[in-house]
TrEMBL record:
One GO CC annotation: membrane
The UniProt record lists the keyword Membrane: yes
One function term, GO molecular function aspect: transmembrane transporter activity
The keyword Membrane appears for this protein: yes
Pfam families according to UniProt: EamA
Organism in which the protein naturally occurs: Glycine soja (Wild soybean)
Family listed: Belongs to the drug/metabolite transporter (DMT) superfamily. Plant drug/metabolite exporter (P-DME) (TC 2.A.7.4) family.
Superkingdom to which the source organism belongs: Eukaryota
Topology relative to the membrane: Multi-pass membrane protein
Transmembrane segments: 21-38, 50-71, 83-101, 113-134, 146-164, 195-212, 224-245, 260-277, 289-309, 315-334
Subcellular localization: Membrane
Protein name: WAT1-related protein
Positions of region (Disordered): 370-392
């Protein structure tokens, strides 16, 4: 093989390596759009959201378990008590808390409204990451200013959507879909503010999930196994909640209809595959990057919601969505600057020790820091030199 071909292959490999996180997250957004469509459809049919969450996570567990068992049987690390407790908390944050409040807010609003509000997750994730010291915030730097301004703008857009509705628009100009939407969801739209609050509560839980997942995946670097265990923990915890909330056996009935295909799709794609892809991307780019592609999902859901569910887009949602998207990409721009300037460890061991190791730092920093710690100090070297001189 000639040198030119080797160079071309090397460039292609580098390109696909750099593009891998972007391709994974873009593909995931198309799959996640179905979560909102199926979720809203199943709620419109009257299925209990508590039972739906149980079936969703149970099917995700069943779908992922065989792949996790065979693919990672040799590379799966040993389970520790701290990792086990983190998985229990992860199962509560996303499968139970986030999904429950998201579906409750969706019941009062619409699929497109919910997918738009969820765009606030990156900004909430950034705020939480700063509190737990996974993100660096230096207001003198432009990138930090962009993150702060973007966070404020994002919350402003979410607040606008919560308090302002405005006139409605039908994307596909269909009288039948307009009549269907107004007849099925107009009672819920009157509770738009309450729905927005519920969705934002779910967003806080989801952001907390991303932060903790980024920590856990470093201590338990087996993405498929971790995703399976999270789904299993979510199934058990959601079952406990559902048995208290839904005591009638009819609520648990399953047939060859929406009660089967909706939990199956959302479980396999939105829970199982999403957990795996997010964990994989977080290892490469961190928790904020993994939440930066939600506007694409918002656009897909708006189109499908109008076409399939007959939902109307309101002016407040459109303006709020644009404001949220602007704030989101301000945060993402600031985050991208973190990668354009690689962090170099200080020559001083004490300075290196104070360097913040975040979810987005390269693992080489940990290796360098470990090697610096193993090196003897200057005083130890002098003592050894004097000791050798005395012996001589």
């Amino acid at each position: 093989m000639s040198a030119e071909k080797k160079k071309l292959i090397g460039r292609l490999r580098l390109f696909f390596t750099n593009a891998k996180p972007y391709l994974l997250m873009i593909g995931l957004q198309f799959g996640m759009a179905g979560n909102y469509i199926f979720g809203k459809d199943v709620l419109n049919h009257g299925m209990s959201r508590f039972v739906f969450i149980v079936y969703r996570n149970a099917m995700a567990t069943i779908a992922l378990a065989p792949f996790a068992f065979f693919i990672e049987r040799k590379s799966r690390p040993k389970m520790t008590l701290s990792v086990f407790l983190q998985i229990i908390v992860l199962g509560f944050l996303e499968p139970v808390f986030n999904q429950s409040f998201n579906y409750l807010g969706m019941k009062y609003t619409s699929a497109s409204f919910t997918s738009t509000i969820v765009n606030a997750v990156p900004s909430i994730t950034f705020v939480l990451a700063v509190f737990v010291r996974l993100e660096r915030l230096r207001l003198a730097e432009i990138r930090s200013q962009a993150k702060v301004i973007g966070t404020i703008v994002t919350f402003g857009g979410a607040l606008l959507m919560a308090i302002y509705k405005g006139p409605a628009f039908d994307l596909f100009h269909s009288e039948s879909t307009t009549h269907h939407e107004s007849g099925s969801t107009s009672p819920h739209n009157s509770h738009q503010t309450a729905g927005a609050i519920y969705i934002l509560m779910g967003c806080v839980a989801l952001s907390s999930f991303y932060i903790l997942q980024s920590m856990t995946v470093k201590r338990y670097p087996a993405e498929l196994s971790l995703a399976t265990l999270i789904c299993l923990a979510g199934t058990v915890e959601a079952s406990a909640v559902a048995f208290v909330a839904e005591r009638h056996s009819r609520a648990w009935a399953v047939g060859w209809d929406y009660r089967l295909y909706a939990p199956f799709y959302t479980g396999v794609v939105s829970s199982g595959i999403a957990y795996y892809v997010q964990g994989l991307v977080m290892k490469l780019r961190g928790p904020v990057f993994a939440t930066a592609f939600n506007p694409l999902c918002m656009i897909i859901v708006a189109a499908l919601g109008s076409l399939i569910l007959g939902e109307l887009l309101h002016l407040g949602s459109i303006i709020g969505g644009i404001v949220i998207a602007v704030g989101l990409y301000s945060v993402v721009w600031g985050k991208a600057k973190d990668y354009s300037e690689p962090k170099l460890p200080s020559a001083n061991a004490e300075d290196t020790k104070s360097l913040p190791i975040t979810a987005t730092d390269d693992s080489k920093i940990d290796i360098i820091y470990g090697n610096l710690e193993k090196q003897p100090s200057t005083n130890q070297k002098l003592e050894e030199t004097n000791k050798v001189g005395d012996e001589n």
